[in-house]
Amino acid sequence: MGRTSDAREKLLNAALDLIWTSSYGGVSVDDICARADVNKGSFYHFFPSKSDLAVAAYEAHWQSTQPGLNQIFSPDTDPLDRLHQCCARLYDAQKMKFAEYGFVVGCPYANAGSELATQDPKIRAKAQEMRDRWMDYLERTIRDAVALGLAEVVDPRSAAQQVYSCFLGTLLQSKILNDPDILLQLEPAIFRLLRANVPTAVAA
Amino acid sequence: MGRTSDAREKLLNAALDLIWTSSYGGVSVDDICARADVNKGSFYHFFPSKSDLAVAAYEAHWQSTQPGLNQIFSPDTDPLDRLHQCCARLYDAQKMKFAEYGFVVGCPYANAGSELATQDPKIRAKAQEMRDRWMDYLERTIRDAVALGLAEVVDPRSAAQQVYSCFLGTLLQSKILNDPDILLQLEPAIFRLLRANVPTAVAA
DNA sequence: CGCTTAGTTTACCGATCGGTCAAGTTGACC
DNA sequence: GGTCAACTTGACCGATCGGTAAACTAAGCG
After folding, report:
1. Sign of torsion, CA A184 A190 A192 A195?
2. Is A102 a domain residue?
3. A105 interaction partners in chain B (CB closer than 8 Å)
4. Are residues A57 and A79 in the same domain?
5. Predicted local distance difference test score (pLDDT) of residue A70
6. For B101-151, what is each residue's pLDDT tens digit?
């Protein structure tokens, strides 16, 4: 009943793009509506507020990237190779964004958390949810690596937290220097943290 | 000639406080003036724009913290103890801010870089300058540690970059979770990165 | 003392902010 | 084909945004 619309999806995409490449505070509702080619009234038909849209946009982005993550972090893959693939894809993705926009844009969830953790509880909670999801992938991978004797860590959960910190920090440093090649230091850092040997031959 | 004033310093302090605990975009010039108890006209007498004030506030903050950093990173101190002291003070500082505001506020320069690197060249450059200054402390410390046989790294500059990523990432993760105790994982991560043994007895 | 210059005050600017509203339009479903 | 709910439209809101201007005041200095 009633008519259908893709305005909601267009708003989600526009919001993610604009906020990711600039910042939450630097993008207005009017900007998002203009990019999505949607009237402001429609915006508030679908979302009660700007921050609700942002939260929904992050969730939609996660849903769209999750299949890829499930593939990278498949239990059938060698644990260290999962981490290698993850770093490689992260580098490629950031390099593509850099080529497109001229800027290293970093991690959208981390950007949001950094900007709004002290100001908007819903966005802080969403950023935390995203980190928890990442942490699950990392912890499982580290547990598998330890079980196979490929890594040595005391506590896999703590190790996952340290590895995740490396992700966040390297991405942020790369954004601050506006240099994607900073990300090349991510994989060696992670392998050192896990006391894992760099795989001599990595699947191309 | 002409009258003197402390309005400039009051503006610098107010801006740093407000922006640090919320965000650049979340704080208005009026907010800063109100906190500093300075009229808006005076604001623009001292600073050409809001972002110029922010840059000046970060520089002033650096100048005020540099003596402490010089002490922590004194060449006379054992290199690993420098890192330990640094982590300990960072934890204490964030814990104090957390007790005061109810939030983990993170690193002011990193926050600024994360929010504005793609939007404001002057602020991105300032964030980069701050990271370069930190990198110098870290690289020197790592070189000293290697020279004393306390650490094993291939390239001190790259290692410093990895360690700095751990700082940034752990602070950011701590902010996103709003939990200062996340920072307790920072020191072990750094020592693992440097293949350094945790000092058995650390000066209290 | 008086001049000069630095700093203060306050009212004001146009633009934009996030958000609202009521009237209109359309399509899915019976 | 009618109906009703879903969606669209565009004008509108008060508040706030970063920034300006000009008259005013006071302190350092000769």
Report:
1. negative
2. yes
3. 118
4. no
5. 98
6. 999 999 999 999 999 999 999 999 999 999 999 999 999 999 999 999 999
At B3 the three-state DSSP class reads coil
Over the Cα atoms of chain B, what is R_g?
A: 19
Interface test mutation site (partner A, options B176, B193, B194, max chain A beta carbons within 10 A) = B176
CA–CA gap between residue B123 and residue A187 (Å, rounded): 29
Q: Which residues of B touch A21 (CB under 8 A)?
A: 118
Residue B22 has pLDDT above 50, yes or no: yes
Residue ranges making up the domain that contains B100: 73-193
Q: Is residue B42 part of a domain?
A: yes
pLDDT, one tens digit per residue, over A103-114 is 999 999 999 999
B111-CA/C21-C1' distance, Å: 38
Looking up residue A19, the CATH number of its domain turns out to be: 1.10.10.60
DSSP per position, chain A? -----SHHHHHHHHHHHHHHHS-TTT--HHHHHHHHT--HHHHHHH-SSHHHHHHHHHHHHHHHHHHHHHHHT-TTS-HHHHHHHHHHHHHHHHHHHHHHHSS----HHHHHHHHHTTT-HHHHHHHHHHHHHHHHHHHHHHHHHHHTTS---S-HHHHHHHHHHHHHHHHHHHHHHT-GGGGGGHHHHHHHHTT-PPPSS---
Secondary structure, 3-state, B172-194: HHHHHHCCHHHHHHHHHHHHHHC
Query: Which of B139, B112, B138 minimizes the C-alpha distance to B16?
Result: B112
Beta-carbon separation of B193 and A188 below 8 A: no
> Residue A190: closest CA among chain B residues belongs to which residue?
B193
Question: Is A25 part of the contact surface with chain B (CB cutoff 8 Å)?
Answer: yes
The verdict on A79 and A143 lying in the same domain is yes
